[in-house]
Amino acid sequence: YFLSFYFNFLDLRTLKRHQFSQDVPDNLSTDERRALRQLSNNPNIIIKPADKGSKIVIMDRQQYLTEAYRQLNNDKYYKLITEPLQPTTQKTIRTFIETLYSKKYISAKQRDFLYGPELPRPRQFYLLPKIHKKQILGLFPLKFLPAAP
Q1: Which domain of life is it from (predicted)?
Q2: To which H or E segment does residue 57 belong?
């Protein structure tokens, strides 16, 4: 299916909420579908949504990794941690939420929602290419027709 290469960028919970009907006619030709399949199977590129708009960016994998390492090695914004911060952060936030609930600032339903899952998903680092800024060699924004998913 057209979106198969894009599923890697979406949360599975989101996908479960949006079931795709098999009754919808395909809006791509056989050649377009084949081209998308070839792109999605190419190990030398990364396909990502752009940071703004509804564009898709195709980026050279090595360029993507170079940019990721450049950002992660900038100690102004990132520092290496030896263990996850989530357990401590979760405890602090839940204590605050419980205070709000005990003082009747929020309802039980709001408290339960704000608590989130007991075991949250691991955090992942990823880049969203910025196509509204000066173009960088290797970025190719693609515009899809309005009728395309």
Answers
A1: Eukaryota
A2: strand 56-60
Domain membership of residue 105 as a residue range: 45-146
Question: If we measure between CA atoms, which residue out of 61, 58, 62, 67 comes closest to residue 143?
Answer: 58
For residue 68, is it within any domain? yes
* Mean pLDDT of the chain, nearest integer: 77
Q: Quick check: is 6 in a domain?
A: no
* 73: amino acid identity, one letter: N
Strand, helix or coil at 48? Answer: strand
Distance (Å, whole) CA 141 – CA 40: 15
Q: d(Cα 121, Cα 109) in Å, to the nearest integer?
A: 22
| More confident of the two residues 2 and 25 | 25
